[in-house]
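Self-study notes.
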Amino acid sequence: MAANTDSSNYLDPQIKIIDMGEGLWIERPGWHCEIDGNGDEEEPRNVSLGAYFRITDMLDAGAFEEESPEAAKPWLVESMIYPCPEELSEKIKKSMGAAPGDSREMLIGYMVSYISGAPFDSQSAQPAGRDFSVRIQGLAMPAGIIMPCFETEEAAQDFCRERINVLPAIFGLIGFYLDNAINRIGNTGWDQIYEMVLDKDLIGLAIDRMKEQEATTLRGL
């Protein structure tokens, strides 16, 4: 895993790219969200964030059948938002098999292999001066986002590197993207961040949200 710190091809020179082998990790100073503290007495906390583009051969993974129409474009690109590795709770680090002394790149690798990030639609934003008017079709994920598929691994990699240019716009509207549902029980991207940073339980967060929505509805009657 080698860090690529040459950002000359990108609109933002502070962007850092780490090639994880099966995808690209991208981060930049200033990409963050604010979450509540862990308990009434703790202050809100700024959490540094990064993005991960995971590239998967769906034929090799057994998700596509050889003779299916989907097999013509088997290379799936998933785009996800994660906390930076230094934000992870000790419990999560232990659960994903991290050991004291592991490098930052190793922690990122453990994280993106162990737990899903908050999915986002990388085709929903456009960088200044570039035209991506044609959406690339692909696979519908549980959150309802279409993640694009490609004929070759090289085409998938090219898409990821081109989409890096939209990340400043994505993180500039981070609250909007984290507000989106990530599964069918109503968890949001915020819940995913709380799980990784403060050890919150996804199911418990979803139940609490449903109770709040029910109470709000009853108050409106």
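Second protein, same conventions, sequence then structure:
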Amino acid sequence: MLMARVAKLESDRNAIQKQMVADVERLARVKADLVKTLAKAEKTLRESGANLGLRVSRMETQIPKLRGTLETLEFQFKHLIGDIKTIRALLVKRLDAVQLLIPKDLPEEADGMWVAAERYRTQGRERVARAIYQRFEASHAKDKRAPQARMIMAGMQVKAGNINEAIKLYGTLEQYYPKSVLVPKAILRVGELLVKQRRCRKAKSVYGYLATTYKDTTEGRVAAQRAAKIKLLCK
């Protein structure tokens, strides 16, 4: 029995030794793989670091150039803005391009747009107001205030000394708003402005048209009287 136990212990010891050898070999392989991995990682980091350093160096070199370019662009942009403002002012002054004056925050709906136009007109900023009235008439032609907007713009043109433009606005009100109660008043104003320009025959014709077409209105009756006295009124 003792010999059997000794034999078993000997067998177990041999098995343990074999296992230990196998474990040592496995650990050796793991260590070798780890060393290779670390070496590869170190190489990658070293190369990346070198490239990063190179990129940083290049960026440091380029930053002053970029800053100079940015300053130049800012300078040019400021001058461009100034040129745009000057051009806009010239367009408004010489070509009457008042649409360039419309505020960016102008409401699109009719009531808000009308309130804005009236506010600017009250403030004496008539060019801005006229631009908004133009936008109002173009955007809300079916609104009951559209004919009034045209009448107001015509009055502004008279005030600015642009009689021909005023005549054009007054004279086309009937065409665009034939059912408006303002039509007779607008035609009467055309006649008055023609008299002011000493365009007597044209004024008589306009008064005659108003007296005949709108004879039942106050303006029609006034026109009839003026047509009869045109030689006294217009010389």
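Instructor comment on the second fold: The domain at 167-235 is CATH 1.25.40.10 (Serine Threonine Protein Phosphatase 5, Tetratricopeptide repeat).
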